[in-house]
Amino acid sequence: MERQHALRLAAFALVSSLVTVGAILGARALTASAQRTTPVYDPPVLAGQQLYGGCAGGVYARKGDVIVLTSTGHCSAEGVVVHDPDGTGVRGVFGPRAVDASCPVPGHWCAASDINYLVVARDRIPWGHLNVVDMGVGGYREIAAGTKALSCADVAVGDGVEIDGREVYRAGHVTGKGDNNQDPALDGTYFPCMILSDIQVASGDSGGVVLVRGIPAGVTSRSFGGYLGFTPLAEGLAELGLTMCDMPACGLTPDG
Length: 256
What we know:
Elements: E1 11-13, E2 28-30, E3 50-52, E4 55-56, E5 60-63, E6 66-71, E7 81-83, E8 90-94, E9 109-110, E10 116-120, E11 132-134, E12 140-142, E13 160-163, E14 169-180, E15 189-200, E16 209-212, E17 215-224, E18 227-232, H1 233-240, E19 243-244
Parallel strand pairs: 9-15
Antiparallel strand pairs: 1-17, 2-14, 3-4, 5-6, 5-19, 6-10, 7-8, 8-10, 11-12, 13-14, 13-16, 14-15, 15-18, 16-17, 17-18
């Protein structure tokens, strides 16, 4: 049954320790040991892949004429510079996280979605592939022209769900929806929509794009007993003034 009430399970941002409350059947995983059959572009597509520490990349988007890559608001502060894992170069710098200044829940930080973005360094923009999400062994997924990110209302219990944080492709289904109104001692952030899935998650999945029915729909945000909780992508993009890329160059003229 769809959960329309507040989510009362203990919720944790995915950069924290996880708790386990029992098995939920139906999810499947293809681990990093499986071989991918798609090339890695240069520069690589980081949408869907590991971005920074325990954070994954969401989707490429535009803020005006600036190319950004979404991630999660609980992962890093505004102004933090993201370097390549080997420290040889800069991937970009984090912008602000989404916030609802008219927060309806006292004592909480409120936002439409658990989202922020990385302003991508110009030499790290994968021109020609900005409408692509890299699901690792799950393959590249192209966002067709005119595709809109899904909102909370667009997602239903039973819908198919996919993620690829930590370079581990997993698929499952939506199991519930509700708001995220927790005791501030457990989770001080209020989201009007939190969507649950039977996909197992761990530290490092945060910020990764969630595909629902193959369409970008969410931001990997929380663990509920070790299982995925994600916030809606459309509302988060709107709150940050972002437009998801649905064309190879996102409507801009590539460098070079």
